Structure formats: C-alpha cells, structure tokens
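Lab notebook, bench 4. Still working through the backlog of constructs that have no structural model yet. Next entry is a single chain of 404 residues. Request: give me the structure tokens for it.
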Amino acid sequence: MSFVKHLECSRCGHNIPKIETRGVCPLCQSPLLVRYNLHQVKRHVKKTTLLDRPTDMWRYLEVMPVDADEDIISLGEGYTPLLPLSRLGKSARLRNLWVKDESVNPTGTFKARGLSAAVSMARKLGFKKLAIPSAGNAGGALAAYGARAGLEVFVVMPVDTPSANVMECRMTGARVELVDGLIGDAAKRVNELQAAEGWFDVSTLKEPYRLEGKKILGYEIVEQFRWKVPDVIVSPVGGGMALIGIWKALQEMEELGWITSQRPRMVAVQSEGCAPIVKAFREAATTAEPWVRPVTFASGIRIPKPFGDTLILQALRESRGHALAVSDESIYSAVQQISREEGLFICPEGAAGWAAIRHLSETGWINPDETVVLLNTGAGLKYIDALNRFAKEHQPVGAGSEKR
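Model written out:
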C-alpha cells in the first residue's frame, strides 16, 4: 500500500504525480521532494508497530516511496549502531557524545541507503540503465545495487578517486570512466550520456528517491534514543543529502505524532579547502557560490557547489544550527584519535565532524550536558590511499630517514 501523495518542488512548490519519472522540477529545475499522506500513515502504523519489524532501513516502509516488498532492492542497509563515545566525550568535556556509525552498511558507507531506495524506484519505474558522477562511495553503492537489481550501471569518477572505490565499481560489473577534473566534470559527462544514450541520472537530488533512503537516518537516530530528539547532530556535508534528509524526517515524525516540535541544532562540516556552504552560511546567503580550486583529501566533501545548497542552508537556519570548516590536518588527526581512543577506524569525512565538535565544545556553542550525535558516513578502510598520501605529503622533513 502506497502512502505517497505527490512529488513537490522544493523551490516553487509545483506538484506532480508520483508516477512521473522526471528527475527535477519541470518548471524551475530544482530538487523534487516526496510527500506522503501522513494522516493515513498515522492511522496505519504506530511506533510500537516497529518493534516486530526487521532491523533494516525498510522497517519504515510506510514513509518510503516503494509500496511493495517485492520492489525493494536491498543488501541489508540501515539500522546502523548508535554508539556512545565516552573517552572522546571526556576529552571534549561532553557527557553525552554518540556516533551514528554508517561504516557497517553494505559497501561500507551511508551511500547504501540512498542508492537502495533510488535503484528500487528506478527498476519499478522501468529504467534499465543508471548513471552517476561520483567521488567514490556513491558510485560503489550504485554499482552494487544495480548488480543486485540486474540493471546496467555507468559510473564517472575523477581520476584521483581512491582505488578501492574504482575497483569496487568494476568488480560489481559497472562501466567506469575516469575524467580529469572534479565531480562537476564527471557530472557533465553523465549529462552527455543521458542525452546521447538514455542513461537515467541518479546524481544527488537529481531524482527524488535517493533522499528518501538518506532521511531514514533521522528516523533511526530518534528511535534509538527511545523517541527523544538529540540536542545537536553534526554531519559532514558534500552533497548534503544526509543533513537534508534528517531534517525532512524530523518534520514527518512530528506530523505523525512520534515526536514534539523540538528539533536538534544541525551542524554542517566541510574542509577549509572546499567550504561553499560554510561561506554561504557566514554571509547569510540562500545559495552557495562555486568554490574555486577545491582541495581536500576527504573526497566525499570535495563538492564545489552542492545542487541542494538552498535546502542545506534552510535546514541550518531553521534549526538554529551552524556551519564550519576544519583543516585537513585536523581531519587526519581526528581519524587517528577516534581510532586509538574508541577503536573506530572512520572515514575522513566523519572525522571532520569530530574536529568540529571539539571546536564547538571549546567555544561553548555545545554545552557539556547536551546530547550530541556525530554522523560517521563510512569506513576508513576505503581511504587507505588518501590517508597514506596525506601522511607522506605532510611528513616532517627528515622524518623516516635512518640515522647514520
């Protein structure tokens, strides 16, 4: 049974039927959002209903666009651990610090959530060929779920994408093309393929269903806190779908009567070498300008201009949140600290969030008694190349040489 009402443009509010297969709004080319008849959902399912359901993303099927179990393309994604970080919390004088650890998802990152939903809907709507520009992890997830669904997949990546991501795509049968340049150059190539060969573009927010998979992060976090909303949620931001999705989930849960109007303060974290959202937030702008010469070894947040910039900034302001950039040196240090103190080898993007939390605690923006959730978006093992390269490039002069 489907509870979807329609697709709604996030900018102009234009509504189109859910059966439409357009990627973006036909009037203003902005992202589309899936809207549900939440009053019907409320009558159909209660919070207690979830207790008897499988512990995966699809336990929240009524607020997902897929309306039948047989349409779901799944590898067991979702319902990832929410773990206390007691040692790190003590070092930052925070009594209630937690991490939502997305590294245990299929393909090792939170990209599994969005691509599970996107591929499920793409196959249901009749698409056979899916394409994506990717800095690495999204491409790997699309390749895996495309293989699961029996669909063709084309992934376009910057030439410096970590080798683990490239191999992951090729091993799962995707056609891979490496381009000189950045994610924007990869996106241009996908646009060419879309026009010439009919590939369906599942880029960030270029279709409405990936976001629905990402939003389940919000449902899970609140359920894992026994339906209490944390005070602060810290998310690394590249394309920004996790932050946008969590904010959407909170709005839906309030309408369902599962939570009150209380909201966490949302925090967007970027690298100093690529911080378009941070710059726009500081300037009180509603859109972000493209970042010139983006440089960071945290490839997932090396996005010069997110397509969903307006939605990211809107969520930050509505939540009375914050946006800040941290140095690559502090990101690398954070990877080491979390690994050594908590036994979690997390990705650089997630580590950027920890670097930000330390700063926000030191400045008093986060209070010691507040409940803080760090979103770790993936496994550090997928970044061995990048971490090794960064360590060698920043090794002190003379370090590592033998004494004579």
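Notes after review: The mean pLDDT is 95. Residues 241-256 form the longest helix (16 residues). Flag for follow-up if needed.
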